[in-house]
Amino acid sequence: MSLPLSEVVPLPAVAPGTWRYARIPLICSLPLVLVSPFLAVGGLSVAAGIVWFHRDPKRSPPPAGVVAPADGRVSIVRAEGDRVRVAVFMNVTDVHVNRAPMAGTVGDVEHTPGKHLPAFTKESERNERVRIDCGECEVTLIAGAVARRIHPYVESGEDLERGERIGHISFGSRADVLLPARFDVEDVRVEVGQRVRAGETVVASS
Q: S-S: 205 plus which of 21, 65, 127, 131, CB 3.0-4.6 Å?
């Protein structure tokens, strides 16, 4: 009886679909060994970079507070009507698996096609995005200049725990949380430029 590959070879914890991206450079590297060892090493390096980029480490959510939806730096803290938005920009070295800021029940999961402009600019308001209604709060995953695919993990009606994985953005780039109406700007516990960790850093508490 054959065993799954994950039981024979310990594989790193990665986001779903990672091996689909990595298998092309891996497969190409095999024949390249006969043609050019240098190119073969290059192919293996690309595959390793893809796996590393999609790494999915464990996180330990705190017992209370609204946690960051992404790893990276806070790029926006602003009031929008009676709500407050906190945005986190992910660079290429950050973990790109996104997490639920609060416990709740998923409402809508809405995909909006758009452009792929740098996610740290104002023009990114026209970028492709996926909006996830997490109950009291709302998370928006926004593609960037390099990002080409947003992968939500959740569907309408699912119950979420604080810090639970809700999706990832392959090769990009920003995640926003729209706080519940009961939170004011004064309740935000982070500031623009601060580094945060998805599912662990408290970005707001009352």
A: 65
| pTM recorded for the entire structure | 0.79
124 is catalytic: no
Whether 20 and 50 have beta carbons less than 8 Å apart is answered as: no
Question: Residue 206 is encoded by which pair of tokens?
Answer: 């009352």
At 56-103, the pLDDT tens digits run 999 999 999 999 999 999 999 999 999 999 999 998 889 989 999 999
CA distance 84 to 97: 23
Residue-wise pLDDT tens digits, 160-188 = 999 999 998 876 689 999 999 999 999 99
Contact between residue 131 and residue 110 where contact means Cβ atoms under 8 Å apart: yes
Helix (H) or strand (E) holding 75: strand 72-80
What is d(CA 75, CA 89) in angstroms, rounded to the nearest whole number? 6
3-state secondary structure of 62: coil
CA pair distance 201, 60, nearest whole angstrom: 10
Q: Which residue is catalytic, options 75, 124, 170, 173?
A: 173
